[in-house]
Amino acid sequence: MANINPFRSRRLAYRAVEDTPEDDDFIHSIQSDPLSYATSNSTLLKPQTKRDTLNGYKKHLMEDALLAVIILLPTQNVHDQPGTAGPPQEIWTSIGIIALKKDGPGHGHHRKSSISIDITKPHQNHGYGSEAIEWVVDWGFRKAGLHRIAVEAFSYNPGAIRLYERLGFQFEGRQREAIWYDGDWHDLLTFGMLDREWKEQQQKKSKKGSSE
């Protein structure tokens, strides 16, 4: 059964990228993290100005993505504060960005896309990336009617490779020595998932849940 709120997952929420100073600052903070940049971006690693971020990465999110959202984590509930009353209200903290690439003109009938994701350093290794990827895959197949979703990883990022395989993405190919990073050549790996594979995965989860 689909979530009542399609823009929520178990612990996270998702909202559109806005033209606000707050979103500009958040997106730039991600682009300014050299480790995050190096593990998710194949362009030349160099200090990013805010203009670089707004004219490059943010423009790509706003114009070239089928879906681009800020990943949010609840940080506080009014009932946690002494003397508060009324319905619960959540305060959200931006912890990342996830997007699905939009195919170019004349290619929409292929119904395919690819994922990009960035999680801020303090919120890594908590399972938020896994949860966000599962959510965006669900959205892509269930809401957008995609047939295939891909994701890429650099060979020097074994954590990402293990994550994609654990989530059910199939290894599809390797571009040998396609990435120059930190004084050496590295491979670019592609993983993919088809809609029927995702449906089979959901059926297995449903059966497992009903048997427990």
Describe this structure in words.
- Residues 95-190 form the N-acetyltransferase domain.
- Pfam families: Acetyltransf_1.
- This is Acyl-CoA N-acyltransferase.
- The protein is of the alpha+beta class.
- It has a single domain (13-211), classed as Gcn5-related N-acetyltransferase (GNAT) (Aminopeptidase), CATH 3.40.630.30.
- Helices cover 35% and strands 32% of the residues.
- It has 6 helices and 7 strands, in the order βαααβββαβαββα.
- A 7-stranded mixed β-sheet has the order 1-2-3-4-5-7-6, with helices on both faces.
- The two termini are 17 Å apart.
- The relative contact order is 0.13.
Please supply descriptive tags for the structure shown above.
212 residues; 7-stranded mixed sheet; 6 helices; 35% helix; 32% strand; globular; acyltransferase activity, transferring groups other than amino-acyl groups; Acyl-CoA N-acyltransferase; transferase; acyltransferase
- From the 3D structure, determine the CATH topology: Aminopeptidase
CATH-level-4 superfamily name: Gcn5-related N-acetyltransferase (GNAT)
Arithmetic mean pLDDT: 92
* Count of domains: 1
CATH classification class: Alpha Beta
The coarse overall form would be: globular
Helix content: 25-40%
What proportion strand?
Answer: 25-35%
Tell me about the largest β-sheet: 7 strands, mixed
